[in-house]
Amino acid sequence: MNVSIDNSWKPYLNLEFEKPYFSDLVNFVKSEYNNHACYPKGRDIFNAFNHCKFEDLKVVIIGQDPYHGPNQANGLCFSVNDGVAHPPSLINIFKELETDLEMPYPTSGDLMPWADQGVLLLNATLTVRAHEAGSHQNKGWELFTDAVIDAISNNKDDVIFLLWGGFAKKKAKRINSKKHHILNSGHPSPLSANRGYWFGNKHFSKTNAILKSIGKTPIDWQIN
């Protein structure tokens, strides 16, 4: 695994790369990619960081695992490559976007335009074996992504964390709520959304209202 991560993150994460757990993680991921089909493509593993520089970061969305089907995962949580059918959670995200901001439903499921505006789309686990959800959990990725959240919480101010579902909400204890903004909601998966825990959270308009209130440029959530 080639750790090609944008230079803006290195002052905050370089120590992690030197820790024994990360060395073990790199060896595990290399072995998995050499012996099995895994996602996302190796060059895309750190896409979340390479499309959202540390100094530009405004919003964090936390996912769990990359998609484990062919050609889906692109290194950003909830995002799929252009031209790929939208998975159920992404469909519900876009439905909420439609009603919250009265925007047309996007044709592309690639969330790169969000990342390029300062939205860190962070999965807790950055890789997965094909067709085996959770197969790369508890191998070290969670330690690394917890360190990412710590770095953001400690070194930035007024970041908006969108915590969708129980897994993401567990990360709240790592976030200094006195200097950051936390918006909680159910997960956009059909199971949660159909029980009334997702639709109507208005997280997109609320995020932009917070950004305006602190003098920052709102996110253009529309995906062309």
From TrEMBL:
<comment type="similarity">
    <text>Belongs to the uracil-DNA glycosylase (UDG) superfamily. UNG family.</text>
</comment>
<keyword id="KW-0963">Cytoplasm</keyword>
<dbReference type="InterPro" id="IPR018085">
    <property type="entry name" value="Ura-DNA_Glyclase_AS"/>
</dbReference>
<protein>
    <recommendedName>
        <fullName>Uracil-DNA glycosylase</fullName>
        <ecNumber>3.2.2.27</ecNumber>
    </recommendedName>
</protein>
<feature type="domain" description="Uracil-DNA glycosylase-like">
    <location>
        <begin position="50"/>
        <end position="211"/>
    </location>
</feature>
<dbReference type="Pfam" id="PF03167">
    <property type="entry name" value="UDG"/>
</dbReference>
<dbReference type="GO" id="GO:0004844">
    <property type="term" value="F:uracil DNA N-glycosylase activity"/>
</dbReference>
<feature type="active site" description="Proton acceptor">
    <location>
        <position position="65"/>
    </location>
</feature>
<dbReference type="GO" id="GO:0005737">
    <property type="term" value="C:cytoplasm"/>
</dbReference>
<dbReference type="GO" id="GO:0097510">
    <property type="term" value="P:base-excision repair, AP site formation via deaminated base removal"/>
</dbReference>
<comment type="function">
    <text>Excises uracil residues from the DNA which can arise as a result of misincorporation of dUMP residues by DNA polymerase or due to deamination of cytosine.</text>
</comment>
<keyword id="KW-0378">Hydrolase</keyword>
<dbReference type="InterPro" id="IPR036895">
    <property type="entry name" value="Uracil-DNA_glycosylase-like_sf"/>
</dbReference>
<keyword id="KW-0234">DNA repair</keyword>
<keyword id="KW-0227">DNA damage</keyword>
<dbReference type="InterPro" id="IPR002043">
    <property type="entry name" value="UDG_fam1"/>
</dbReference>
<dbReference type="InterPro" id="IPR005122">
    <property type="entry name" value="Uracil-DNA_glycosylase-like"/>
</dbReference>
